[in-house]
Amino acid sequence: MTRQTAIRTNVLEALYGRYNHRQFIKPDPLQFVYNYSARGDMEIAAFLSAALAYGRVGQIEKSLTDLFQRMSPAPGRFVRDFDARQRAVLKDFKHRFTTGDDISDLLIILKKVLGSHGSLEDFFTQFHSPGDKNIIPALSKFCDALLQMHTRIHNSRPSRGLRYLLSNPEGGSACKRLNLFLRWMVRKDSVDPGLWKSIDKAKLIVPVDVHMARLCKILGLHNHKNASLKAALTITEAFVRIEPADPVKYDFALSRVGILENCTGACRAQCTDCEILEFCLQPH
Fold first, then answer.
1. Residue 281 confidence (pLDDT) above 60
2. pLDDT tens-place string over residues 141-151
3. What angle do CA 169, 163, 123 make, to 5 degrees?
4. Distances from the Cα of 206 to the Cαs of 57, 65, 159, in angstroms?
5. What HEC string does 151-168 produce?
6. Sign of CA dihedral 165, 188, 80, 36
């Protein structure tokens, strides 16, 4: 291990020790998963919470609160029983450019998945091969299968809104929201619930958005211009060199720097207590 890698590792471990605790989950959308105790409810809540994890944090919280109030008291049962009545309940729901119809189209697919496989895990794992380098091939097949299911059910092309909720990495997207869902489902620690037991956490990809991309660039983990799939893969490979069995280990803690500390990459007075200050002061 090089000196620079050792320094990064110490910084990341310090961040993990500071932030990787249940008390820091709010305002993360993961908070809504822990509103339920039944596995089926938690799995569906996780998928929907990750799917809508775009935009401002406050708006995400507001939208998810609204959505799960409509699906109360059990989102798993809401999906399994989904019909025209449930669609009417969601009709006027909106989160930025995701509409109630987009959510309803997604839930129709998920209802079919639960009816045929019992859980999202059993459906997803049919696409996963232990020989795959990472989770991306399985994620691509998973998204394709869900969208094809919509086409068979409705005999029409999926809407743009539904395709956004099921972004396929084949198009070059970092797929931050789906990789976030997989992190929640596969990893288990003080933060991540780890409901799935059939996927190796070593295969996970870091959920990368513009904020995570900026922090990882400050740490010298990549030099890509955009938060693309290429950037996510480069960042993940950098974490593999630090923690090969669990490359997504530091994702939650590192993202708290942006969410809780409002880090923009510019040095401020409060930065003196930040673990990554040494890297921020270096030229990039």
1. no
2. 999 999 999 99
3. 70
4. 19, 26, 27
5. HHHHCCCCCHHHHHHCCC
6. negative
pTM over 0.85: yes
Spell out the residues 6+ positions from residue 262 whose beta carbon is closer than 8 angstroms to its own.
Answer: none
The 10 Å CB-count burial string (b at 16+, else e) for 182-210 is bbbbbbeeebbbebbeebebebbbbbbbe
Q: Are 93 and 107 in contact (CB under 8 A)?
A: no
Which residues, 6 or more positions from 129, have their beta carbon under 8 angstroms from its beta carbon?
137, 138
Question: Which domain does 38 fall in, by range?
Answer: 3-280
AA letter at 148: Q
Are 235 and 208 in contact by the 8 Å Cβ rule? The answer is yes
Structural domain total, the chain = 1
Residue 272 is predicted with a pLDDT of 66
For residue 274, what are its two tokens? Answer: 């930040």
Residue 131: which residues within 8 A CB-CB, separation 6 or more?
none
Q: Is the peptide bond before 73 cis (omega within 30 degrees of 0)?
A: yes
CA angle 255, 132, 111 (to 5 degrees): 70
Please list, in sequence order, all residues whose beta carbon lies within 8 angstroms of the beta carbon of residue 2, skipping any fewer than 6 positions away.
none
Amino acid at site 39: R
Position 269 confidence tier, pLDDT thresholds 50, 70, 90 = low
Rounded CA-CA distance 208/206 in Å is 6
Half-sphere exposure of 118 (CA within 13 A, CB side): 4
162 close to 147: Cβ distance less than 8 angstroms = yes
pLDDT at 265: 61
